[in-house]
Design brief:
alpha/beta, 243 residues, five-stranded parallel sheet, Rossmann fold
Length: 243
Amino acid sequence: MKYVIINGSPRRKNTWKMVEYARKNINGEFEEIHLMKEKIPLCNGCYNCIVESEEKCPHRDKVKPIVDKMKNADGIIIASPVYAMNVTALLKNFLDHTAYFYHRPEFFTKKALVVVSTAGSGQKNVAKYIDETIRHWGVNKVYKITYACGGKDEFDLKNINEVSKKFARDVESGKMHNPKLGDIVFYDVWKAMALSKEPIEADKQYWMKNNLTDYDFAPEIQLNLFKRIFSRAMFFILKRVIK
């Protein structure tokens, strides 16, 4: 199996040590991406990636190689310490550059592991933020390891081992999980927008090219009966609301 690690910390201390402990339970090839070294310019909010296509991002040469590595991986590991009750600026900047995935999700068959540490508090909320963001990318299942270490070199190894082993087994199994209802709603929102009378052209081309408009959710994911009915009902409503 192939894994890509996106390290959002400018240092390699507590958060990175947690990643290293987790990594011991995961068999496969690892590609490390340390955002501090990537020197991605700040997202300038030009909306090119959303309105025109991700190829028009002025920083595409920095962002595309990382995105390509995520696409080629079986599992994605994202790590960040808590900075001012949120992710680091390094990780936030990278996530800002991937805003187009909210409109054009791609990672439906990927599993992810989120690792967050803090010297104080906020670790669960930060992990939740990363979780919600990458589920908008389409990520099938997200596992989370969080820990408040109080600035000390001490970790909850039992939890790290349990969660990382579950993540590894899930990636290796190839099993696809049913999405949450909220994820289905957003899928239907973007599908309805792509089929609206005045769609964002990049969205329309993506959804049509990948035949995503023909499914209640991503074709790789088999929804259970309740969620199929739910998705169809939501899309029926949304396509009438979104003109």
